[in-house]
User: Fold this.
Amino acid sequence: MFGKKRVAIVGAGLTLFRRRLKETGKELSYEASKMALDAAGMELGDMQSVVMGTAPDAFDGVHMKGEYLADGAGAYRKPYTRVFVGGGTGVFTPLAGWWHVASGQFDSCLVVAEEKMSSCYPHPQFAFTTIFDPILERPLGMNLIWIFALEMHRYMHKHGIKKEDIARVSVKNKGNALDHPCAQLGAKITVEDVLNSEIMAWPVQRLDVSPTSDGASALVLVSEDVAKEVTDNPVWIDGAGWCIDSTHWTNRDLYYPDYVECAARMAYKMAGIKNPPKEIDVAEPYDPFDYKELHHMEGLLLCKKGEAAKLTAEGVTQRDGDLPINPSGGLLGVGNPIAAAGLMKVCEIFWQLRGEAGKRQIPGDPRTGLAQAWGDLMQYGSVIVLRR
Amino acid sequence: MSEKIKNYRGEALKSADIKEGRVPTEKCRPKAKFAWSAGIAIGRFLEELKKAKIIASTCSKCGRIMVPPRIYCENCFKPTDGWKYVKDTGTINTYSVSYLAADATRLKEPILVAIIDLDGASEGMGIIHKLGEVDKEKIEFGMKVRAVWKPKEERVGSITDIKYFKPVKEETP
Assistant:
C-alpha cells in the first residue's frame, strides 16, 4: 500500500445557474474551467489530468456525454475520466480528482462538473422516470417526486416533525442565496409561503423543491509541492468518503440515510474528526428538497437523529449561528444543475475557508468545512472534508 | 475567487425564446424502444402474480424472507435457497398523495401511492404500489391493507395485476 499524498484546492470557478442558459454544456464547462484556472493563476498546460462529473445522458439526449464535453473541460490529449453517481456526482467528482493526485500518479487535476437540464424539452422530469425499475416500478407511472414524498413523509412520521419545521430550511436557503451572484432562486419568503405553495405530492410542495437548472463549476486540485509554488493559502482535502446502499429501496427504512453516515464516517476517520458538530465549522449538505438538509445533517452526525429541525428553528444553522448550514443558499436557492450544484457546494466551502465568500462569509474564521451530495435511488452518499 | 470575480458567465434564456424561435435550436424525439427480460427471480414473481399470489425468496444464512424476490442475497452474497408465499396483506410504511403524473402533468384526482410492508415477509420488506377505495384524508401510517387483484382473465403477469391495495375493514367478532 502506497502512502497517500496530501491534495490542495487552489482555484474554483462557477457560471451563473439558470433555468435555461444560452451556452451549450461544452461552453459552460469551458467558462467554469477557465475561471478556476485563472483563479489559481495556472494554465491548462499545468493540468496533468481532468475529471468530469455530469449526470444522466438523458437530459442532454447525448450519449457518451463525457466525451461530448471533453474539449470544454480542457481534456484534449490528457488522461480523462467522466464519473457519474446520480445526484452524488458533484461531490464525488472532486473525490475522484483527489485520488488522481493522492495516488501520486498526477501532480494536478482539473475537476469540472456540468449539467444542462434544459435541453430535455419542455421539462426534464420525464427523463428522470427512466431511473426506475422497468419491471416493478415504471408500470405504476412513477414520478420522481414520489420517492422524495415517501421518504419525507416517513422521516416526518418517525420523528413527529411538522411541515413548518421543514419549511424553515427553504426560507433560510433561498434567503442566503440572495447574496450569491450566481443564484437562480434567491428570494425572501416566509414559512407560510412554503405551506401555501402548490401541493405536488404530499407532503412535498412547490417551495420544498429545488429547481431544474443549467450551469457548471470547476476546481483546480494540486499536490502539496505544487500548492506551495502557486499559493499561500491552499485549502486541503483532508477527508474523503463515499458509500452506496441497496437498490431495493422499498426494503429500507427511509427515515435515516445510513449510507450517508457510512460515507461521513469514512471521511471523518481520514480527517481525524472525532466530534463532528464541534470540529466542523461550516457545512454544505445536499438540499435538493428542504427536508434533505435536515436528513443529511443527521446522517452526517452533525446532530442527533430527529434533532436537525429543532436546531434550524433555534437559528443554529444560520450564517451567524453555531453551525452554519448551506451559507451559499444551497440547491434550493442557488439552483440545481445536478453535478454542477454538488461541486458548487465544494466551491463554497473553499471560498468560506479562504475568507473570500463576500457577503456570504460566515463569521469566526472557519478552518474546517464539509460538503456532501446524495443520489441514485436514495442510496448514494459522497462526503468531502476541507481544511485550511 | 468568489469575492474577486466580478463577472460570472452565463446568458439566461426564457422558455419563450425557444418557443418563438428567437434562438437557433434543433429538436429531436428519439424513438428508442426496449423489451426488458424480467429475469429469473422477478420472472417467477410475475408468474405468481398472474395466479394472484405473491412469492418471496429466502436466504437460509440470514433467515430473511425477501420481497421482491432475488436469486442472490445481497447481505450474505450467496444464492437464495428457497421460495415462500407471503400474504397479500400488509401495513402502510409511508405514503404520498400525488398530484403529479409520470410526465409531471398535474392531476385533478391524486394518485395515492405507498410503500406496503407485506405480511409474512421479513420486517421492513416493502413494495411500492397504489392505494384505492380509501379517502385520501383517512390514510394512516401503520394502516392494514389488502391487495385488490384484477380478475383472472385480465392478469398478465405484471405488477399491475394488483390494481391497488385497500384498507382491511376491522372484522366484527
User: Anything to note?
Assistant: Residues 40-167 of chain B form one domain. Strands of chain B lie at 54-58, 65-66, 72-73, 78-79, 82-86, 89-100, 106-118, 126-130, 144-149, 162-167. The CA atoms of residues 110 and 132 of chain B lie 11 Å apart.
